[in-house]
Each structure stands twice: as structure tokens, then as C-alpha cells.
Amino acid sequence: MNIKLNGADHTLSDDASVTTLVSHITGRVVDSSGQAADGRKIGVAVARNSEVVPRSQWAATALAEGDELEIVTAVQGG
Amino acid sequence: MTTASTQAASTRTDALVIDGVEFGSRLIMGTGGAPSLDGLGAALLASGTELTTVAMRRYSPTETGSLFQLLVDHGIRVLPNTAGCFTAKDAVMTAELAREALETDWVKLEVIADEQTLLPDAVELVDATEKLVDRGFKVFAYTNDDPVLALRLENLGATAVMPLGAPIGTGLGILNPHNIELIVSRASVPVVLDAGIGTASDAALAMELGCDAVLLATAVTRAQNPVQMGEAFKHAVIAGRLAKQAGRIPRREHALASSAMEGRAEFL
Questions:
Q1: Is B138 a catalytic residue?
Q2: What ipTM score was computed for the predicted complex, to two decimals?
Q3: Predicted confidence (pLDDT) per residue in B205-222, tens digit
Q4: Contact B101 A77 (CB under 8 A)
Q5: What sign does the dihedral B179-B185-B186-B187 (CA atoms) show?
Q6: pLDDT, tens digit, for every residue of B57-115?
Q7: What is the C-alpha to C-alpha distance for residues B102 and B108, in angstroms, rounded to an integer?
Q8: Which of chain A's residues have a Cβ under 8 Å away from the Cβ of B99?
Q9: Mind telling me which InterPro entries this protein's record contains (chain A) (predicted)?
Q10: pLDDT by residue (tens digit) across B114-127?
Q11: What CA–CA distances, in Å, run from B210 to A65, B178, B188, B193?
């Protein structure tokens, strides 16, 4: 399926969930509670079609054709 | 007898308490403006800060190293901001994302009016504070140096109020010390002087005016020697706090000799 990720076109397998996407983008294994399996902080949040998807719902949230996803993280700032 | 070491111990018990969390350092560092993560880490350590702000932006896979992980590794608590938001709606959405990403309900609320002044938009700020408090956030409200607005934000449930010394990034210091004193005198939540700090004496002045803490970023990260400037601010904040607690002498119109006039030798 085709989605928008952070404003750019992105193609994913049809059965992708938010977990699949986060794992794919960050290169980390993400467990069913939305934490990185390596025990270190993953430090990202996901909005799907302008709604925040809580970490606990990542695995259960299936993506759909045309979804608009934003993945954000902490960067330097005052 | 009071020794130097027991004196030092007594200053360590003068903790900054925000939302039940104790901080030994009253210097809150922003992380903006540093050219590299390594340099930033060294400056943060030199400053002795225990709380730092971060911004929330789109994740980039090409970015090397994680700022959040750096802070976690150094045991520095993170305070996400809503920098770049011009409306209450955007600020609430950014705060929600930060809460999810960084697992904290603390947020430095910045709602900016325009890019030229970067001054807070009071109307949007009040609206956003109300909405975020309703959603369970601990709001650190970045505000104008307006005693009326500061009190209004506190009454809406802000956890801390953060009046500016001067516009963001200007390094002009504290333009209206009287207003800052007035804000402090009426506040029952922590007052953090935020923005406009240029050099160490500005931070000392903020503490002498009675602020509970000082927040600054570019004064350190864009200094010619950020590590040394971070250390300078560490001492400035401690000095200002001690001076405030020690009680300064009153200002006088005329000179007052400190040496006695009696008993002087007489010469022909």
C-alpha cells in the first residue's frame, strides 16, 4: 500500500501496522507494548491522520492506503 | 563550628522542587544551537544541569545518534517544548506527541506570535494552558514579562511560569527587572527566567531578583567556548541564589565609610 510518511510517499506491505512502520524506519525491533526490544528508549511518537496513536496501540493499529503518518522525535531545541 | 564542607552541604539541601521532583541545580539548559551532539553533551555536563529542553521534529533515519538517549545516559531529565507552534491547537498536538515519545507529562509551552519577535502570543498561550492542564499535562508556561499574565497562567494551573528576560536568542539580558521581581513576589509556583540571557551576570541577576531557576540555551551552545560558558553559568546561578538568600545591603544616595573615623592618628 502507499502512504505518506513525514510528508513523503512511502510504500509498505498491505498488512503493515504502526509497529511495522516504526520498526522499519528506526531499524529497531519493537515489542507488542511499543518499546524497543533492546531495552533502550525508542523516543518516537506517531500521529496517523492527525491523531496520536498511543504506543500501546501501535501493534493493533493497521495502516490503510492513503494514510498520512507523522513520526517525530526529540531534537535540539530551547 | 561551621566548616567549609558543612556550608557546602547546606547549600545542597536548597533544592529546586517542581511538581514534587527535586533538582540540585537551578540551571535548566536548552539544547538548541549546538553544532554537534558530542559538544552538547560536554557543555551540559559542565553546566551541571539536571533538566533540559528538547524540541519535537520529524524523525530522520540519517540523523546520527539520539539526543533523547544522550540525555537518558547522562541522567538528565527531559522537558519537551512546543517551539515553532503559533496556535494553541498545534501546541496541544505537539505536547501530545512529546508525551508519547518521551514518556513525560511535563511540557514547556511556547506559543509564538510571529517569527520576527518570537514573543509569546498571550491569547493562544492562555487557551493552550487551559487545554493542556485539562489533559493532565504539567505546563511550564513560557510567557511575556507581564505580572498579570503570569498570575493568570498560574491560576489556570500552570506548574511553573517562565517569563522572558528579553526576546529569544537576543542575549540582551533582563530588560525589565522590576516586572520580574513583581512576578516573583506574587507567584506561588516556581518562576523560571527564560530567554534573553547573554552572559553569566544575567543569570546571577535573575536569581538575585528571586527567580527559582534560569533557563538558557544559546548563551552556552553558541558561546565561543560552550563548555567553559556552561561552567560559568553553573557558578552564576549558585552565586545569585546565595546573594538573594544572604540579603543585599540597601542602595544609598551617599557614601558610607566602613572604617571608623575615631582613633585616627593626627599629623602636623
A1: no
A2: 0.92
A3: 999 999 999 999 999 999
A4: no
A5: positive
A6: 999 877 656 788 888 888 899 999 999 999 999 999 999 999 999 999 999 999 999 99
A7: 13
A8: 45
A9: Beta-grasp_dom_sf, Mopterin_synth/thiamin_S_b, Thi_S, ThiS/MoaD-like
A10: 999 999 999 999 99
A11: 56, 11, 12, 10
Q: Which residues, in sequence order, are CB contacts of B147 under 8 Å at separation 6+?
A: B179, B182, B183, B186
Long-range contacts: A10-18, Cβ < 8 Å, 24+?
A10/A69, A12/A63, A15/A62, A16/A62, A16/A63, A17/A58, A17/A59, A17/A60, A17/A61, A17/A62, A17/A63, A18/A46, A18/A48, A18/A53, A18/A57, A18/A58, A18/A59, A18/A61, A18/A63, A18/A69
Residues 17 through 56 of chain A touching chain B, CB cutoff 8 Å = 25-27, 40-41, 43-47, 50, 52, 54-55
Contacts of B101 in chain A (CB under 8 A): 43-45, 72-74
